[in-house]
Amino acid sequence: MNYRTLGKTGWKISEIGLGTWQVGGGWGSPFNLKVAEEILHAAFDKGVNFVDTADVYDAGLSEAAVGEVVRQRSEKIYVATKCGRRIQPHIHETYTIEKLRRHVEDSLRNTGLNRLDLIQLHCPPTPVYKRDEIFTLFEKLKSEGKIAAMGVSVEKVEEAKLAMEYEVVSSVQVIFNMFRQKPAEELLSIAAAKNVGLIIRVPLASGLLSGKITEDTTFSKDDHRYFNREGKAFDKGETFAGVPLEKAFPAVEELRELFKGDGSLAAIALRWILMYQEVSVVIPGASKLSQLEANVEAGKLPDLTSSQMFEVKKIYDKYIRAEVHDLW
Asked: What is the DSSP letter of 305?
Protein backbone atom coordinates (compact mmCIF):
# COMPACT_ATOMS: atom_id res chain seq x y z
CA MET A 1 0.00 0.00 0.00
CA ASN A 2 1.19 3.49 -0.84
CA TYR A 3 0.41 6.44 1.42
CA ARG A 4 -0.25 10.09 0.69
CA THR A 5 -0.79 13.20 2.81
CA LEU A 6 -4.32 14.43 3.45
CA GLY A 7 -3.77 18.12 2.96
CA LYS A 8 -3.21 20.36 5.96
CA THR A 9 -4.03 17.54 8.41
CA GLY A 10 -0.60 16.06 7.72
CA TRP A 11 -2.04 12.54 8.08
CA LYS A 12 -0.40 9.80 6.04
CA ILE A 13 -3.33 7.86 4.63
CA SER A 14 -3.56 4.94 2.24
CA GLU A 15 -4.05 6.10 -1.33
CA ILE A 16 -6.79 3.50 -1.64
CA GLY A 17 -9.31 3.82 1.14
CA LEU A 18 -12.69 2.23 1.68
CA GLY A 19 -16.06 3.82 1.03
CA THR A 20 -18.86 2.21 3.04
CA TRP A 21 -22.06 3.28 1.27
CA GLN A 22 -22.70 -0.36 0.36
CA VAL A 23 -20.48 -2.21 2.82
CA GLY A 24 -22.29 -5.11 4.45
CA GLY A 25 -24.96 -5.36 1.83
CA GLY A 26 -24.84 -3.58 -1.46
CA TRP A 27 -27.33 -1.17 -2.93
CA GLY A 28 -30.82 -2.53 -2.43
CA SER A 29 -29.73 -5.35 -0.10
CA PRO A 30 -30.30 -5.52 3.68
CA PHE A 31 -27.36 -4.68 5.92
CA ASN A 32 -25.27 -7.65 7.07
CA LEU A 33 -23.06 -6.77 10.04
CA LYS A 34 -20.92 -9.89 9.71
CA VAL A 35 -20.09 -9.13 6.07
CA ALA A 36 -19.36 -5.50 6.93
CA GLU A 37 -16.96 -6.48 9.69
CA GLU A 38 -15.20 -9.01 7.43
CA ILE A 39 -14.66 -6.40 4.73
CA LEU A 40 -13.47 -3.77 7.20
CA HIS A 41 -11.00 -6.09 8.92
CA ALA A 42 -9.71 -7.35 5.56
CA ALA A 43 -9.21 -3.79 4.35
CA PHE A 44 -7.23 -2.84 7.43
CA ASP A 45 -5.19 -6.05 7.16
CA LYS A 46 -4.19 -4.95 3.64
CA GLY A 47 -2.92 -1.56 4.79
CA VAL A 48 -6.04 0.54 4.24
CA ASN A 49 -6.09 3.11 7.03
CA PHE A 50 -8.77 5.51 5.79
CA VAL A 51 -12.46 4.65 5.85
CA ASP A 52 -15.32 6.91 4.80
CA THR A 53 -18.84 6.52 6.16
CA ALA A 54 -21.90 8.66 6.91
CA ASP A 55 -24.69 8.82 9.43
CA VAL A 56 -27.27 8.10 6.72
CA TYR A 57 -25.63 4.97 5.30
CA ASP A 58 -27.99 2.13 6.21
CA ALA A 59 -29.57 4.43 8.81
CA GLY A 60 -26.39 4.52 10.90
CA LEU A 61 -25.55 0.82 10.72
CA SER A 62 -22.53 1.43 8.48
CA GLU A 63 -21.19 4.10 10.83
CA ALA A 64 -21.69 1.84 13.86
CA ALA A 65 -19.93 -1.09 12.16
CA VAL A 66 -16.96 1.11 11.26
CA GLY A 67 -16.67 2.32 14.83
CA GLU A 68 -16.92 -1.19 16.23
CA VAL A 69 -14.15 -2.59 14.03
CA VAL A 70 -11.87 0.43 14.40
CA ARG A 71 -12.08 0.12 18.18
CA GLN A 72 -10.93 -3.50 17.86
CA ARG A 73 -7.78 -2.56 15.95
CA SER A 74 -4.43 -1.55 17.42
CA GLU A 75 -3.20 0.48 14.44
CA LYS A 76 -4.38 4.01 13.69
CA ILE A 77 -7.36 4.01 11.34
CA TYR A 78 -8.63 7.39 10.20
CA VAL A 79 -12.42 7.55 10.25
CA ALA A 80 -14.23 10.08 8.09
CA THR A 81 -17.96 10.48 8.48
CA LYS A 82 -20.52 13.02 7.31
CA CYS A 83 -23.40 15.09 8.59
CA GLY A 84 -26.25 17.12 7.18
CA ARG A 85 -28.21 14.74 4.96
CA ARG A 86 -30.60 13.93 7.81
CA ILE A 87 -31.86 17.51 7.70
CA GLN A 88 -35.25 17.55 6.00
CA PRO A 89 -36.37 19.23 3.92
CA HIS A 90 -32.83 19.35 2.59
CA ILE A 91 -32.65 23.07 1.85
CA HIS A 92 -30.23 25.67 3.13
CA GLU A 93 -32.89 27.38 5.25
CA THR A 94 -33.26 24.25 7.39
CA TYR A 95 -29.50 23.97 8.05
CA THR A 96 -28.79 25.22 11.57
CA ILE A 97 -25.73 24.95 13.77
CA GLU A 98 -27.89 23.32 16.44
CA LYS A 99 -28.89 20.47 14.14
CA LEU A 100 -25.37 19.96 12.83
CA ARG A 101 -23.89 19.92 16.33
CA ARG A 102 -26.47 17.34 17.39
CA HIS A 103 -25.66 15.18 14.37
CA VAL A 104 -21.92 15.28 15.11
CA GLU A 105 -22.59 14.25 18.69
CA ASP A 106 -24.88 11.46 17.42
CA SER A 107 -22.03 10.17 15.26
CA LEU A 108 -19.68 10.16 18.23
CA ARG A 109 -22.14 7.99 20.14
CA ASN A 110 -22.90 5.78 17.16
CA THR A 111 -19.23 5.04 16.40
CA GLY A 112 -18.23 4.80 20.05
CA LEU A 113 -15.18 6.96 19.28
CA ASN A 114 -13.89 9.67 21.59
CA ARG A 115 -13.20 11.97 18.66
CA LEU A 116 -14.11 11.93 14.97
CA ASP A 117 -11.02 12.22 12.80
CA LEU A 118 -12.83 13.93 9.94
CA ILE A 119 -16.39 15.24 9.80
CA GLN A 120 -17.65 16.35 6.41
CA LEU A 121 -20.68 18.35 5.39
CA HIS A 122 -22.63 15.86 3.30
CA CYS A 123 -23.38 17.59 -0.01
CA PRO A 124 -25.43 20.48 1.39
CA PRO A 125 -27.27 22.97 -0.83
CA THR A 126 -24.91 25.45 -2.47
CA PRO A 127 -25.85 28.49 -0.29
CA VAL A 128 -24.64 26.64 2.82
CA TYR A 129 -21.06 27.02 1.58
CA LYS A 130 -21.41 30.79 1.95
CA ARG A 131 -22.57 30.78 5.59
CA ASP A 132 -19.81 31.75 8.00
CA GLU A 133 -21.64 30.44 11.08
CA ILE A 134 -21.67 26.90 9.69
CA PHE A 135 -17.90 26.77 9.38
CA THR A 136 -17.40 28.56 12.71
CA LEU A 137 -19.34 25.71 14.34
CA PHE A 138 -16.74 23.20 13.18
CA GLU A 139 -13.93 25.38 14.50
CA LYS A 140 -15.68 25.21 17.88
CA LEU A 141 -16.16 21.44 17.66
CA LYS A 142 -12.47 21.12 16.86
CA SER A 143 -11.50 23.24 19.88
CA GLU A 144 -13.80 21.10 22.04
CA GLY A 145 -11.94 17.97 20.95
CA LYS A 146 -14.97 16.38 19.32
CA ILE A 147 -13.44 16.42 15.84
CA ALA A 148 -9.85 16.49 14.64
CA ALA A 149 -10.56 17.99 11.24
CA MET A 150 -13.40 19.19 9.04
CA GLY A 151 -14.06 18.77 5.34
CA VAL A 152 -16.82 18.98 2.77
CA SER A 153 -18.34 16.49 0.38
CA VAL A 154 -19.52 18.37 -2.70
CA GLU A 155 -21.50 17.81 -5.86
CA LYS A 156 -20.07 20.74 -7.82
CA VAL A 157 -16.58 22.06 -8.39
CA GLU A 158 -17.83 25.58 -7.63
CA GLU A 159 -18.99 24.40 -4.19
CA ALA A 160 -15.50 23.09 -3.48
CA LYS A 161 -14.03 26.46 -4.39
CA LEU A 162 -16.41 28.23 -2.00
CA ALA A 163 -15.64 25.82 0.86
CA MET A 164 -11.88 26.13 0.45
CA GLU A 165 -12.10 29.82 1.33
CA TYR A 166 -12.54 28.71 4.95
CA GLU A 167 -9.33 27.82 6.77
CA VAL A 168 -11.06 25.12 8.83
CA VAL A 169 -11.68 23.06 5.66
CA SER A 170 -8.95 20.43 5.43
CA SER A 171 -10.42 18.21 2.72
CA VAL A 172 -12.82 18.11 -0.20
CA GLN A 173 -14.59 14.96 -1.28
CA VAL A 174 -15.63 15.03 -4.92
CA ILE A 175 -16.66 12.76 -7.78
CA PHE A 176 -13.72 12.35 -10.15
CA ASN A 177 -13.24 9.55 -12.65
CA MET A 178 -12.70 8.85 -16.33
CA PHE A 179 -16.28 10.01 -16.94
CA ARG A 180 -16.11 13.10 -14.70
CA GLN A 181 -12.93 14.96 -15.57
CA LYS A 182 -13.81 18.56 -14.71
CA PRO A 183 -11.93 18.46 -11.37
CA ALA A 184 -8.68 17.86 -13.27
CA GLU A 185 -9.18 21.13 -15.11
CA GLU A 186 -10.60 23.36 -12.38
CA LEU A 187 -10.09 21.93 -8.89
CA LEU A 188 -6.94 19.88 -8.38
CA SER A 189 -4.43 22.70 -8.73
CA ILE A 190 -6.44 25.02 -6.46
CA ALA A 191 -6.70 22.37 -3.76
CA ALA A 192 -2.96 21.74 -3.93
CA ALA A 193 -2.21 25.46 -3.62
CA LYS A 194 -4.44 25.68 -0.52
CA ASN A 195 -3.06 22.43 0.91
CA VAL A 196 -6.53 20.85 0.94
CA GLY A 197 -6.71 17.07 0.68
CA LEU A 198 -8.82 15.49 -2.06
CA ILE A 199 -10.96 12.45 -1.35
CA ILE A 200 -12.30 10.86 -4.53
CA ARG A 201 -15.65 9.09 -4.51
CA VAL A 202 -17.67 7.28 -7.21
CA PRO A 203 -14.39 6.30 -8.91
CA LEU A 204 -16.03 3.62 -11.05
CA ALA A 205 -19.13 5.65 -11.97
CA SER A 206 -21.44 3.30 -10.03
CA GLY A 207 -19.93 0.29 -11.79
CA LEU A 208 -19.90 1.59 -15.35
CA LEU A 209 -16.12 1.70 -15.34
CA SER A 210 -15.93 -1.89 -14.16
CA GLY A 211 -17.02 -2.80 -17.67
CA LYS A 212 -19.46 -5.33 -16.22
CA ILE A 213 -22.68 -3.38 -16.74
CA THR A 214 -24.37 -3.91 -20.09
CA GLU A 215 -27.64 -2.96 -21.75
CA ASP A 216 -29.10 -6.18 -20.34
CA THR A 217 -28.11 -5.50 -16.72
CA THR A 218 -31.06 -5.10 -14.36
CA PHE A 219 -31.10 -3.50 -10.92
CA SER A 220 -33.39 -4.02 -7.95
CA LYS A 221 -35.98 -1.33 -7.27
CA ASP A 222 -34.11 -0.38 -4.08
CA ASP A 223 -30.86 0.25 -5.99
CA HIS A 224 -30.17 3.90 -6.75
CA ARG A 225 -29.00 2.81 -10.20
CA TYR A 226 -32.64 1.92 -10.83
CA PHE A 227 -34.54 4.76 -9.14
CA ASN A 228 -32.17 7.74 -9.24
CA ARG A 229 -31.00 7.98 -12.84
CA GLU A 230 -32.85 11.26 -13.25
CA GLY A 231 -32.10 12.51 -9.74
CA LYS A 232 -35.48 11.74 -8.19
CA ALA A 233 -34.00 10.93 -4.77
CA PHE A 234 -30.73 12.92 -4.74
CA ASP A 235 -28.31 14.52 -7.18
CA LYS A 236 -28.26 12.39 -10.32
CA GLY A 237 -24.51 12.90 -10.55
CA GLU A 238 -24.14 10.31 -7.78
CA THR A 239 -25.66 7.66 -10.08
CA PHE A 240 -23.46 6.55 -12.97
CA ALA A 241 -21.64 9.88 -12.43
CA GLY A 242 -24.59 11.48 -14.21
CA VAL A 243 -23.74 9.87 -17.55
CA PRO A 244 -26.65 8.61 -19.70
CA LEU A 245 -26.15 4.88 -20.31
CA GLU A 246 -26.53 5.20 -24.07
CA LYS A 247 -23.47 7.47 -24.06
CA ALA A 248 -21.55 5.38 -21.56
CA PHE A 249 -21.60 2.02 -23.32
CA PRO A 250 -19.71 3.06 -26.49
CA ALA A 251 -17.21 4.96 -24.33
CA VAL A 252 -16.65 1.87 -22.18
CA GLU A 253 -16.04 -0.22 -25.29
CA GLU A 254 -13.38 2.19 -26.51
CA LEU A 255 -11.74 2.13 -23.08
CA ARG A 256 -11.75 -1.68 -23.17
CA GLU A 257 -9.97 -1.61 -26.50
CA LEU A 258 -7.48 1.01 -25.33
CA PHE A 259 -6.46 -1.08 -22.31
CA LYS A 260 -6.84 -4.51 -23.86
CA GLY A 261 -4.45 -6.92 -22.13
CA ASP A 262 -3.52 -4.45 -19.38
CA GLY A 263 -5.80 -5.81 -16.66
CA SER A 264 -9.36 -5.18 -15.52
CA LEU A 265 -10.94 -1.91 -16.56
CA ALA A 266 -11.98 -1.26 -12.94
CA ALA A 267 -8.39 -1.46 -11.73
CA ILE A 268 -7.18 0.77 -14.54
CA ALA A 269 -9.91 3.31 -13.76
CA LEU A 270 -8.62 3.52 -10.18
CA ARG A 271 -5.03 3.77 -11.40
CA TRP A 272 -6.07 6.62 -13.70
CA ILE A 273 -7.29 8.64 -10.70
CA LEU A 274 -4.11 7.96 -8.76
CA MET A 275 -2.03 9.34 -11.63
CA TYR A 276 -3.01 12.76 -10.28
CA GLN A 277 -0.67 13.49 -7.39
CA GLU A 278 -3.05 16.11 -6.00
CA VAL A 279 -5.39 13.26 -5.05
CA SER A 280 -4.99 12.13 -1.44
CA VAL A 281 -7.17 9.02 -1.48
CA VAL A 282 -9.71 7.25 -3.64
CA ILE A 283 -12.54 5.50 -1.79
CA PRO A 284 -14.10 2.73 -3.88
CA GLY A 285 -16.78 0.74 -2.11
CA ALA A 286 -16.96 -3.01 -1.62
CA SER A 287 -19.89 -5.25 -0.78
CA LYS A 288 -17.79 -8.44 -1.00
CA LEU A 289 -14.20 -9.39 -0.25
CA SER A 290 -13.32 -9.98 -3.89
CA GLN A 291 -14.15 -6.35 -4.71
CA LEU A 292 -11.99 -5.10 -1.86
CA GLU A 293 -9.06 -7.24 -3.01
CA ALA A 294 -9.40 -5.98 -6.58
CA ASN A 295 -9.47 -2.37 -5.39
CA VAL A 296 -6.31 -2.77 -3.35
CA GLU A 297 -4.49 -4.52 -6.19
CA ALA A 298 -5.19 -1.53 -8.45
CA GLY A 299 -2.69 0.47 -6.45
CA LYS A 300 0.06 -1.91 -7.56
CA LEU A 301 -0.48 -1.36 -11.28
CA PRO A 302 2.20 0.47 -13.25
CA ASP A 303 1.63 4.09 -14.16
CA LEU A 304 -0.44 4.77 -17.24
CA THR A 305 1.53 6.24 -20.12
CA SER A 306 1.08 9.81 -21.29
CA SER A 307 -0.38 8.39 -24.50
CA GLN A 308 -2.97 6.37 -22.56
CA MET A 309 -3.91 9.40 -20.47
CA PHE A 310 -4.35 11.41 -23.67
CA GLU A 311 -6.55 8.74 -25.23
CA VAL A 312 -8.78 8.56 -22.14
CA LYS A 313 -9.35 12.30 -22.42
CA LYS A 314 -10.19 11.93 -26.10
CA ILE A 315 -12.83 9.32 -25.29
CA TYR A 316 -14.24 11.58 -22.59
CA ASP A 317 -14.38 14.53 -24.98
CA LYS A 318 -16.03 12.41 -27.68
CA TYR A 319 -18.81 10.80 -25.65
CA ILE A 320 -19.12 12.25 -22.17
CA ARG A 321 -18.03 15.88 -21.83
CA ALA A 322 -21.17 17.41 -23.32
CA GLU A 323 -23.34 15.36 -20.94
CA VAL A 324 -21.68 16.16 -17.61
CA HIS A 325 -18.91 18.76 -17.75
CA ASP A 326 -20.96 21.91 -17.24
CA LEU A 327 -23.45 20.40 -14.77
CA TRP A 328 -21.05 19.67 -11.94
From this structure: P
Rounded to whole angstroms, the maximal C-alpha distance in the chain is 54
> Which of 295, 239, 302 is closest to 51 using CA atoms?
295
pLDDT tens, 152-180? 999 999 999 999 999 999 999 999 999 99
Q: What is the Cα–Cα distance from 111 to 102, expressed in whole angstroms?
A: 14
> pLDDT tens digits for 41-100?
999 999 999 999 999 998 899 999 999 999 999 999 999 999 999 999 999 999 999 999
pTM summary value: 0.96
DSSP, res 285 = B
- The residue type of 175 is I
CA 131 to chain centre: 24
**Residue 314 Cα to chain centre, angstroms:** 25
Q: Is 315:268 a contact under the CB 8 Å cutoff?
A: no
Express each pLDDT in 99-110 by its tens digit: 999 999 999 999
Predicted local distance difference test score (pLDDT) of residue 28: 65
Tally of CB atoms within 10 A around 94: 11
CA-to-CA separations, 6 to 30, 44, 158, 265, in angstroms, rounded: 33, 18, 21, 27
H helix count then E strand count, the chain: 13, 10
Residue 327: CB partners within 8 Å, gap ≥ 6? 237, 242
Alpha helix (H) residue ranges in 113-264: 132-143, 157-163, 182-186, 188-193, 224-227, 245-258
- What is the CB-side half-sphere exposure of residue 226 using CA atoms within 13 A? 10
Using pLDDT thresholds of 50, 70 and 90, give the confidence band for residue 26.
Answer: low
Using CA atoms, how far apart are residues 298 and 207, in angstroms rounded to an integer? 15
In terms of Cβ atoms closer than 10 Å to its own Cβ (0-12, 13-18, 19+), residue 59 is exposed
